[in-house]
Amino acid sequence: MSEWLPEALYTAEQARHLDAIAINDYHINGFELMKRAGQAAFDRMLKRWPTLSRGGILQIFCGAGNNGGDGYVVACLARQRYLPVRVIALRNPDELKGDALRAWLWFRDLGGTTESWSNNVTITGSVLVDAMLGTGLIGDVQGDYLAAIQRLNASGRSVLAVDIPSGLSADTGAALGDAVQATMTVTFIGVKQGLLTGAGMRYCGELCFSSLAVPDEIYQQEAPSSRLLREQELSGCVSPRVADANKGTHGHLLVIGGDHGMGGAVIMAAEAALRTGVGLLTVATRQEHVNAINSRCPEIMARGISTPASLSDLLTGKTAIVVGPGLGQSDWSRALLSVAMVSGLPLLVDADALNLMAKDSRLLDAATSSLLLTPHPGEASRLLQVTIAEIQQNRFSAVTQLQQLCGGVVVLKGAGSLVFDGQSLSLCGAGNPGMAVAGMGDVLSGVIGSFLAQGYEPATAGRVGVWLHAAAGDDCAEDAGQIGMKACDLLPFLRRRLNQLANGGI
Prior knowledge:
This protein is α/β, with parallel strands linked by helices and about 500 residues long. The protein has 19 helices and 19 strands. The strands form 2 sheets. It has a 12-stranded mixed sheet with strand order 8-1-10-19-18-17-16-15-14-11-12-13, sandwiched between helices. It has a 7-stranded parallel sheet with strand order 4-3-2-5-6-7-9, covered by helices on one side.
């Protein structure tokens, strides 16, 4: 889990621009910023590992640039506190330049010495500090840096990453060959978007942020590349119920899916929609699932559908559609999807409906509905005709390409889900690995579909739905742990979280 983080997220180039604005326009000395960064990292480290000040050993791995300079500052602070510290230099300190050189000279003046990196270096630190490679890395890690990263990861020791885990792309969250597996990362001035999606969430561990006390005005000079979904902003999107509300006030959602043997998916989507406030809910599915749905949740109006014509008859009075949970890829599945695509109603497309679209572009070409797509990386790979690895290598690029291909709003699911409407890109930092189980996507489609049916704009429905689903997952994990979580376990937490949003996050 991460602590409070600001809404604005940046690429590496943007973060460097913020740094330059602070130095050039606000006349904050670059070495002063470096000392603030080292202090922020040092303070977080002692808070996270208080035993360091009671006999622990600090081992710091320093590279050649400003990231290495931050590491030397941490080493200086340790010496001032009389903490045992070993500094391993990946680059000869005599070759350092600028502020990094000043940091090394400060460390030397305090009586500090360094050891040159070699494969024979022993790992002795109770906490290791990664200050080897910052945000400027281009291409895969090689040579001594790769060897050092692998040694740190194999050590089993706690690792503090300074600004970013070495080897991780600040822009995409992908490991560039390999990356340090940090226990905690303290990042500075601007939160790098790659820390919060894909593999970035695994490599950075607990994520902390320090603005280094730069003026707030500098952030007005650089538009963020993406924005973090946060409760305080989303609470304004959800209103409490008015006193004279009725079931028709809050929309009528139609969920389409549940081919032979796959009725559970539509049940999960439908129940999630009911728990997030839709007024009326109809499920169009195979006749064999109707009795089970009625038994499980009598509030759902289940209809057995055998032909496209019978589905068309159900469209009257509906305010949105979810198509895809358990839909399958049979002729029946394709026929129902075809009807949904030309319904003209706000339409969430998920699961096998996405796979059918990937196989037959005519389905997308014929669409008259406002689309909201919710692919996971596998479905995204089929739509874009690339590998899953390519999707995960740059999730920001993938969600942009998907939106350009399909239009509407796209939610690229996974760790650090992304929501893109063609203009604004949002990232969800909530959620946990316990949610990586069957049915979670069906629940999410029901949540977002519920908001669509209630009249929310698709982009708002996507953002609120994605965050609400992830936050409920975190609440569920806090209640009973991550392992063994089921998709339906989220239902009571969804309701609770939604009502908190409607009451201003209280």
